Amino acid sequence: MKITAKAWAKTNLHLGVGEAREDDFHELMTVFQTINLFDTVTLEMNESDMVTEGSVVKQLSVTGPRGVPEDASNLAWRAVDALVARRAESTPLPAVTIHINKGIPVAGGMAGGSADAAAALRAVDAWIGPFSEETLLDVAAALGSDVPFCLLGGTMRGTGRGEQLVDILTRGTLHWVVAVMAQGLSTPEVFKKYDELDVAPHMDIQDLSAALLTGNPESVAQHLHNDLAAAAFSLRPELRHIIRDGINAGALTGLVSGSGPTLVFLCASPESATDVADALIDAGQVFAAYTATGPAGSSAERGAHII
């Protein structure tokens, strides 16, 4: 038996970072949006190998970029174990092999690991569920700050550490270029640098919310913001130059996605996005550049879902 689920990449249209809390997380005001880059997670159950205790996962493999853990530290593996632990029965289950097919940049600020966890939760729910949406979101939040959004998708405001979510109304489709760097950035390192820089937080999203409702990309571009950009630029100064190159090539604006180093450029049209992606590749400073749209998926497939 095999079950496959898909989950989209995310970017942050706004990321305001407040003070560090007692639990070492920062208070956030963010606007998430899915874009149509995705990972798939496949669970394959071996009925001839029944598991009575411990993890049901026996193996995990990854197709795609290097650097993704293939052991119990992988968020998808942890997600399977966490949701299995919530079932009412304690009967044996078949051993599970997980395979992840990566289309989301690794260590790039686009929630690739969180997307895998969300897809794994949907797959387990299809296998031994149904679980309530409340249970799925509770397990998701325990796994990581971005996992609940990856589970739900769309365009949402996130507060707390990003796990407290409310839908934001949007119109139209936004056209993006995703510029991927050859080397990732550590999220804890970026937050540490942010604290050192003592950046004034931007926690107001009213103007962005109004712009998203118009569906006008020029208006949206004026209100995109990321408090972590200064920290990412401090650690990787070349990112500033790449943003400049993208704007010179026709992008409305460019910004760091999440904790970086992936950059996203908002464009006025699909044709403009293609031109910007080509220009960034020709300049030779990025590992890859993809065109994408957001929010991703139909209303039924806006978050992690079975395929």
Automatic annotation (TrEMBL):
Pathway: Isoprenoid biosynthesis; isopentenyl diphosphate biosynthesis via DXP pathway; isopentenyl diphosphate from 1-deoxy-D-xylulose 5-phosphate: step 3/6. Residues 74-154 form the GHMP kinase N-terminal domain. Keywords: ATP-binding, Isoprene biosynthesis, Kinase, Nucleotide-binding, Transferase. It comes from the Bacteria. It catalyses: 4-CDP-2-C-methyl-D-erythritol + ATP = 4-CDP-2-C-methyl-D-erythritol 2-phosphate + ADP + H(+). The keyword Nucleotide-binding applies. SUPFAM superfamilies: GHMP Kinase, C-terminal domain, Ribosomal protein S5 domain 2-like. One of its GO terms (biological process) is terpenoid biosynthetic process. One of its GO terms (molecular function) is ATP binding. ATP binds at residues 105-115. The active site is at 10, 146. It is an enzyme of class 2 (transferase). Its EC number is 2.7.1.148. Catalyzes the phosphorylation of the position 2 hydroxy group of 4-diphosphocytidyl-2C-methyl-D-erythritol. Belongs to the GHMP kinase family. IspE subfamily. PANTHER family: 4-DIPHOSPHOCYTIDYL-2-C-METHYL-D-ERYTHRITOL KINASE, CHLOROPLASTIC (PTHR43527). This is 4-diphosphocytidyl-2-C-methyl-D-erythritol kinase. The gene is ispE.
